[in-house]
Amino acid sequence: MATIPHDYHMHTALSCDSQATMAGQCEAAIALGLREIAITEHADWEPLDDCSGYYQPDAYFAELATCRERYGDRLTIRAGVEIGEAHRFGSEAHQLLATYPYDFVIGSLHWVTGRMTLTPDYFEGWDARAAYEAYYSEMLDVVAAGGFDVIGHIDVPKRAGFSVHGGYDSTAYEEPLRAVLRCAIERGIGIEINTGTARRAVGIPSPDLPVLQWYRELGGEIITVGSDAHRPEHIGYHFDDARALLDAAGFTAITCFEARKPVFVDL
Question: 80, 110, 206, 217: which has the fewest Cβ within 10 Å?
Fold first, then answer.
């Protein structure tokens, strides 16, 4: 049995950046002993994004129904979506979520001032502090706008920035990160441990221990774990590390969702 029973962040070919089948993702999860997954395709409306307008929710829910019929006796499959830049595309996001029966919604920030935060180009012409503070400032706007359940990969620029600037120290950004976390807690929004970051040069999940400790210290309770898998072999990736972070930060439960309602599951 996997150390974490749920993987709450993954993609299939219904996202523009994956070629995985939904059935393949389900079978990989079952093979790992996972009890529950959320398949969280990208829903993006940023014109600069390659995934803009790609997501087709009717096709997604049709495939989801097929997989639930096929695997439902072995795996709970939650309907999920990862919305990019919800603060700038609020009407589109609201219409999507009002139309379809999602269980779980991730809110992510991939674009800041016209720059893709996951690439080295994001840091061009900026020192590390300017780049990260611009991201956290806009992330605060994302969380204040709300409309989603957890913040996706809260410190995602470090995936590229770790190599560009020779490391990343979350404690250098404690003040803006605490502001984001505080706002999230006030809005009933959680955070995720995203182990996809461990596949990059950073080598550890996102966020790291200090951020998780601040979140818990501020009263945060809602926390999910997701691999951000775009391929079957990445499902459940580094979940042992996620479990170690949860234990070290003092969390005794993780969160799953049904019909957008959080359910706490003891570890």
Answer: 217
DSSP string, 29-57: HHHTT-SEEEEEEEEB--TTSTTBTT--H
What's the gap between Cα 191 and its chain centre? 8
Q: Which domain CATH number covers 219?
A: 3.20.20.140
| 36 alpha-carbon distance from chain centroid | 16
Which is nearest to 256 in space by CA: 159, 150, 183?
150
1 found inside a domain:
no
Q: How many domains does the chain have?
A: 1
- 46: in domain: yes
Instruction: Give pLDDT tens digits for 47-82.
Output: 999 899 999 999 999 999 999 999 999 999 999 999
What pairing do the DSSP bridges indicate for beta strands 223-226 and 190-194?
Answer: parallel
